[in-house]
Each structure stands twice: as structure tokens, then as C-alpha cells.
Specification:
The complex is a heterodimer of chains A (about 120) and B (about 350). Chain A is built from 2 helices and 8 strands; from the N terminus they run H-E-E-E-E-E-H-E-E-E. Chain A is an alpha+beta fold. Chain A has a 4-stranded antiparallel sheet with strand order 2-1-7-6, with no helix packed on it. In chain A, strands 3-4-5 form a 3-stranded antiparallel sheet. In chain A, strand 3 and strand 4 form a beta hairpin. The longest helix of chain A has 25 residues. Chain A is elongated, with a radius of gyration of 21 Å. In chain A, about 30% of the residues are buried. By secondary structure, chain B is an alpha+beta fold. Chain B contains 10 helices and 15 strands. An 8-stranded antiparallel sheet of chain B has the order 1-2-6-7-10-13-14-15, with helices on one face. In chain B, strands 3-5-4 form a 3-stranded antiparallel sheet. In chain B, helix 3 runs antiparallel to helix 8 and helix 8 runs antiparallel to helix 9. Classes of the chains: A alpha+beta (about 120), B alpha+beta (about 350).
Chain lengths: ~120, ~350
């Protein structure tokens, strides 16, 4: 009886693993993006895999962003505290650098997936 | 760490009896059944949409799907075919064909043709001639499908006959004239947008509250999907080799048009020629952009301004689109993406 219960737990665990695996495969991002927002509005998206330096102009000031080797940081900014510069590199999906005085956020986010009704090209 | 892993793996192996295996298989089968059930449901929802499709506009795939009577959908597609016939540069019997053969004289045309021509003149003025339907004298020399490039001499000779100033349109009396007998009107950069708007308003008048109009990738989502959710359309990613998607946009009563330098193109002597021509030079526009996608309630605006923005290049395009109050997605050759006018709020 105890053994049957154990089997059931194993089976449930296996089931959860299968569902997770299928979910991860289906929802796998098509490549992480660096999303830049001023005041909550997206103003730019850049693939994290491609090195670049971008000057970002929000209304309150500028920040210079560097993407290099799959990570991103703020190199320079004209905000008072320089917290954004001090934060250094981020690279994982879900991480963000925020420059409060400029109302700027730079976040790393996953790609797109899901069904569509039509494709514009 | 290592011992834990060993213990758990032997635990799993020991527990994998025949009975638990059968149980596991049963649960896995149930798990697999879930997606197939939901795909059935999806199919059922799609059945309320009537679809009619055909190849029009010189070989582009056109489809109209709408949540209304089959007759209305078929009639909408017939309307597309009619506009294709009247507005085509290559049909000598249609309005545009006759206008081009008009030898400098007045030509009577349908009222819709007069409207699109007068709109074309408006756009030419707004874009200082960067959009110019009289580009036909040059565009007819190029063949991007077969890979035909005219000689430099042919292009400079043809450029003398380009200029929207020589096109006059009287919408009231349905008459148009090309002053230069060698001038040629080509509505390629505006016709699909104009037609998409016309089809949308036709379907609306027929009582259709939900439709997706796809004119070779120029899209119009009328209303919402039958289930009340917004239409989800993909923007193709020119840098992906396997038909990838750069973004998914949710739309309702809006058109999405993408203009890109990657669709119709050919290479000759190491130079790539794409199909977006500059009416000023007669050659493909030089740009740092791969594509521009515009979202607008007017498909004609989206069509014209997407191509215009593409020709302007990234920096000027962003400013121009902002000034027009349009939502747009710019995909640059260096891999950057710029979002204009709150299009980010539509991203699904």
C-alpha cells in the first residue's frame, strides 16, 4: 500500500516533469532582447547577442547603454546619482537597470511565441 | 551534491515497476490529449470565419476571412479582383492602363480611380515627391522577379518622364490626364492599402463585424476576432531564415503594413537590387533599415508611409512617423528595433 502511494507520487512527479519539459520547449524564447523604456513606453529593442553602444535620450536626460557579449550595462549618464552606471552588467531575462531620475528602464526579456492570425511582410 | 543525485536516480529506477510505468504512461497520454482537445476547440472557433482566397496583383496571395455570409466574402474578393483590373499598370483596358496610353489627353475613369489618384497626389506633396506614382516610367523598366536591371542610360532617360506635377485629376468629373505622353502611373505603392480600406468598409456595410483581410501581407483586421479578442498579427523577421517573427501585434479595426527591402530582390555583379525605387534616382532606395511596419486605421496611410519611412532611413523615419502620429516598428540592418508611437502597447 505504501509502495503504491510512492509509485503514485513518482508518477505525478514524472507527469509534472513532462508538462514542464513540453512547456519549456513550446515557450522557448526566440532570443533574449534588451528592452528600453522611457516613462513606461518602449522606445527600443535590441538583441542581447549583438554588441552595440546606444545613446538613449529620455526627456529628463541621456544614458549611454552598452551591449557586449550577451550582457548590458549603462556606461555613462547625466543623472545625479549614477546608480544605473554603478549597477554594472545584467544579462538574464527578467533583470533590469532602472534610472529613476530619467524614468528609464533597461530590461532583458525573452522572445516571442504563440499563435497568430496573419503575418505582415 | 553528487551523492544526492546518485540516490535520487537509484530511487527512480527502483520505483519504476511495471504498474507505475503503466500509470505513468496513462498520465502522459492524458497530458498529450490536452493540446489536441484545445486545437479542436480552436478549429471550431475558426469555422465561423468564411474564407475566400485568390492570387491577384501580379501573383500575390490574397485572402479575406470574415464572420458573415459566404456571399459577402466572395463579393469582397470579387471587388479586389475588380480593383486589380482597373488599377493595374499592365492591363491596357483598365483605367490606369488607358491613362498611361492617353497620349497627353483627358481619360475618363471610375470615381474610385479618381479618388486614389487624387490621394496619390496628396501623398506626393506631403512627402516632397519621395512617394510619386508617376515613377512608372522607371519602374516598368525593372523586373525584380526575373532580375532585370535597366542600363544607367535607360534610367536617366526614363527619369525625365517622372513627376507628379504632370498628373491632373478631377474627382468631380472623373477625369485624369498625364501631360507627358511618356509618363506612366504605377499605383504599386498605394493600391493595396486603398483596396484593403475599401474591402473593410464594404464588409462593414454588409454587416460583418469581424474580418481579416490579407492582401499579400498588407493586413486589415476588422473589428475583433469572433471570440472578442483582438487579432494577433506577426511581423516577419527579415533576418530570420526560417520565416521567423520579429513581433506579434494585437489589433482591432486597424491595418498593419510592412515595407521591406528583403522581399523582391536580385543580385547582379555583386550588387543587391531590391524593389523599393527612389523616384528621384530611379534606383532602389538606399537605407539603413530592413523594414518598416506601420499600424493605422487607414491601410492606405500605412502602405504609403511605411515605404516612405523605409526610404528615409532610421533617424529621419522615426521623426517623420512621430510627426504623422503613426505607430510603427523599424527594423534596422544592424539588428536594432525602434518602436514609434506606442506600438509597444500592442505587443503580445
Amino acid at each position: 500500500m505504501d509502495r503504491g502511494k510512492g509509485n503514485l507520487i513518482i508518477a505525478c512527479a514524472a507527469f509534472v516533469l513532462v508538462v514542464l519539459a513540453v512547456g519549456i520547449i513550446l515557450l522557448r524564447p526566440s532570443g533574449a532582447q534588451v528592452i528600453v523604456r522611457c516613462d513606461g513606453q518602449i522606445i527600443g529593442e535590441y538583441p542581447i547577442g549583438k554588441d552595440r553602444i546606444e545613446r538613449i535620450e529620455c526627456e529628463a536626460g541621456f544614458n549611454e547603454m552598452e551591449i557586449s557579449e550577451g550582457k548590458v550595462r549603462v556606461v555613462e549618464a547625466d543623472c545625479p546619482g549614477h546608480d544605473c552606471v554603478d549597477q554594472g552588467w545584467i544579462s538574464a531575462s527578467g533583470q533590469a537597470i532602472v534610472c529613476l531620475p530619467h524614468r528609464l528602464s533597461i530590461s532583458v526579456e525573452g522572445g516571442f511565441s504563440g499563435e497568430m492570425d496573419a503575418v505582415s511582410r | 551534491m553528487r551523492t544526492t543525485r546518485q540516490r535520487s536516480s537509484s530511487f527512480v529506477r527502483g520505483a519504476m515497476t511495471r504498474r507505475s510505468f503503466a500509470l505513468w504512461c496513462g498520465i502522459a497520454a492524458c497530458g498529450l490529449a490536452v493540446p489536441s482537445v484545445s486545437s479542436c476547440a480552436r478549429k471550431g472557433e475558426g469555422e465561423s470565419l468564411q474564407t475566400a482566397d485568390r492570387y491577384l496583383f501580379d501573383g500575390t496571395y490574397v485572402s479575406v476571412s470574415a464572420d458573415c455570409a459566404r456571399e459577402a466574402v466572395v463579393e469582397a474578393l470579387d471587388l479586389c479582383a475588380h480593383y486589380d483590373w482597373t488599377l493595374s499598370r499592365t492591363n491596357p483596358e483598365g483605367d490606369i492602363g488607358r491613362l498611361n496610353e492617353g497620349a497627353g489627353g483627358n481619360v475618363s475613369i471610375e470615381s474610385d480611380t479618381a479618388i486614389i489618384l487624387s490621394k496619390a497626389v496628396d501623398y506626393a506633396e506631403k512627402t516632397q515627391g519621395a512617394f510619386d506614382v508617376t515613377v512608372g516610367a522607371v519602374s516598368q523598366l525593372w523586373d525584380f522577379r526575373e532580375g532585370v536591371k535597366p542600363s544607367d542610360e535607360e534610367i536617366s532617360e526614363a527619369l525625365r518622364h517622372v513627376g507628379y506635377g504632370g498628373l491632373s485629376v478631377d474627382v468631380g468629373s472623373c477625369i485624369a490626364r498625364l501631360d507627358d505622353p511618356f509618363a506612366v502611373v504605377d499605383l504599386g505603392g498605394i493600391a493595396k492599402g486603398f483596396i484593403a480600406d475599401k474591402i473593410a468598409s464594404f464588409l462593414r456595410d454588409e454587416g460583418c463585424e469581424s474580418a481579416m483581410i490579407d492582401l499579400g501581407g498588407n493586413l486589415y483586421g476588422l473589428g475583433t476576432k469572433p471570440d472578442g479578442r483582438r487579432w494577433v498579427v506577426g511581423v516577419s523577421n527579415p533576418q530570420s531564415e526560417d520565416g521567423g517573427i520579429a513581433a506579434r501585434l494585437e489589433i482591432e479595426d486597424a491595418s498593419v503594413v510592412t515595407s521591406g527591402i528583403y522581399e523582391r530582390r536580385f543580385e547582379q555583379d555583386g550588387i543587391v537590387y531590391h524593389h523599393v525605387l527612389d523616384p528621384k534616382t530611379g534606383y532602389p532606395v538606399e537605407t539603413d533599415l530592413l523594414s518598416v511596419t506601420v499600424v493605422s486605421p487607414s491601410s492606405m496611410d500605412a502602405d504609403v508611409y511605411a515605404t516612405w519611412a523605409l526610404s528615409l532611413g532610421h533617424d529621419a523615419a522615426r521623426g517623420a512617423l512621430e510627426d504623422l502620429g503613426l505607430e510603427a516598428l523599424l527594423l534596422a540592418k544592424d539588428g536594432g528595433r525602434t518602436l514609434v508611437g506606442g506600438i509597444g502597447n500592442r505587443m503580445a
